[in-house]
């Protein structure tokens, strides 16, 4: 209870921190972290191809589905022949869950860290700058997240390229179940996933650039124009 009371007593809301680069960029990081993991998590897509049949029998459509975390081999589908019979379960090929889950994990933890530091910036600015420990820890964690955004965004960009290849209708019609009698349909809409890669690299840029502004809060940063002293020949104030 004493700790809670001390936190309440030390809280002093100051929105002026949002006008400084330190707070403003942190808000952007918070927003873009949400965009990053939200565009990947919960995604579900569908690709299309069909079995060619002689008229007047209509082509038999097949619509394989896939979704986050892009463990494609977990999504079976059946190919319907012209006589109405269905093949055994056919599976999409590939498992890209590690890259997708790593990317989403970085986004979620980045969002949580931004939330905590924004509370610190806006409500406990005096505590944050009271000692050098707060800015130093903030600098180290922010630099670590910049590195994680680089790794996770690069890995996810490569995985997304592989996902798009694996669910491409032109690729799927070459499966044994089609036996050369299928034609490609519409590809799955992956615009949301393409945007997620962009958000990932935007986060990298934001977190990397924010390191400079946090660095200026640490004792490692030296003031380029220190005030003149009497020993250095500075004029005394009247």
TrEMBL record:
Family annotation (InterPro entries): Marvel (IPR008253), Synaptophysin/porin (IPR001285)
| Source organism superkingdom | Eukaryota
Quote any Pfam family the record assigns.
MARVEL
Q: Which organism is it from?
A: Liparis tanakae (Tanaka's snailfish)
Keyword annotations from UniProtKB, A to Z: Glycoprotein, Membrane, Transmembrane, Transmembrane helix
Membrane topology classification: Multi-pass membrane protein
Which compartments does it reside in? Membrane
Q: Which family does it belong to?
A: Belongs to the synaptophysin/synaptobrevin family.
By what name is this protein known? Answer: Synaptophysin-like protein 1
* Residue ranges constituting the MARVEL domain according to the UniProt record: 17-219
